[in-house]
Amino acid sequence: MKLYAIGDLHLSYEYNRKALEELEPHLQDGLILCGDIGETAEHLELAFAAATRNFKTVFWCPGNHELYSLQSSRPDLRGEAKYQHCVDVARRHGVHTPEDPFVRWDGEGGPAIVAPIFTLYDYSFRPADVSRADALRWAEETDTVATDEFLLHPDPHPSRDAWCAALVRRFEARLAEAVAANPGVPLVIANHWPLREDLVYIPRVPRFSLWCGTKATEDWHTRFGAKVVVSGHLHVPRTDWKAGVRFEEVSLGYPKQWSDVKTAGKDINDLLREILPGPPPPPGGEAEMKWRRWG
């Protein structure tokens, strides 16, 4: 019984929807869907139906795309209301969400506590000499503006920063509770956004880092005894080791970002990332980053 993960399915694209149809049965295994499934309830229904049909246990954490408010699909749902709507869809399929109790994993690589969380971002992944007030202007200097600025609303919070701060406080407490309740059992933390700024490598749009996380989670991997941290968002699949903790960026991405992988004969099954059991820690707990674009 293994635990796998994949993120950023972006099912608004027909190419990716067809790829999802090729998912093969892993009826004794688990799967983490690490955000950015799509923008609508229909996208979530497709992903959750396929995942629960092929995997014994499924976990999900939201990305920014799930939180978008579109005129074409329930524009009345904004911010927390849109998030709760996604949670409700997941629960109808028996998918574990950040709003549910964390689950103990006793399969290969266990025991471990699988903890899907939701932190958003607060624009703090920026140079020290760039203030929060100047952050968006700094990004705009290189024609970088996230769609989130127009479609991701923080309601009822006054800003995305404030929503992020509230989420960080809540999941910080929940992770601490999980550690206290399960002494000696490591965590698998799944969050769409990277927990650490030094894992953000997006050379084509480096100033997009503003929308990639919060410095408030920088030490969570060691503070909460994580064995593996799973994320997406960057569309740069890779494996890193920090202080003996494995970090897995598990994005599929937009069709243009992986269609050559498909053309070369690989499919979505080849791109599922094994989270548990996974490899043992390297000597000293550190290792060179490994690109995982080809699986």
Would you tell me the structural class of the helices and strands? Answer: alpha/beta
Main sheet: strands, sense, barrel: 7 strands, mixed
- Total number of beta strands: 11
User: Spans with pLDDT under 50 lasting ≥5 residues?
Assistant: none
Any chance you could write out the topology, listing elements then pairs?
Layout: E1 3-6, H1 14-20, E2 26-33, H2 41-54, E3 55-60, H3 80-92, E4 103-105, E5 112-116, H4 132-140, H5 148-151, H6 160-181, E6 187-190, H7 220-223, E7 226-231, E8 238-242, E9 245-249, H8 255-263, E10 273-276, E11 287-291
Parallel strand pairs: 1-2, 2-3, 5-6, 6-7, 7-9
Antiparallel strand pairs: 1-10, 4-5, 8-9, 8-11
Helix pairs in contact: 2-3
Quick overview of this protein structure:
The chain is α/β, with parallel strands linked by helices and 295 residues long.
Could you explain the architecture of this structure?
The chain has 295 residues and is an alpha/beta fold. The chain has 8 helices and 11 strands. A 7-stranded mixed beta sheet has the order 4-5-6-7-9-8-11. Strands 3-2-1-10 form a 4-stranded mixed beta sheet. A hairpin with a 6-residue loop joins strand 4 and strand 5. Helix 2 runs parallel beside helix 3. The longest helix has 22 residues. The radius of gyration is 18 Å and the shape is globular. The model has no long low-confidence stretch (mean pLDDT 97).
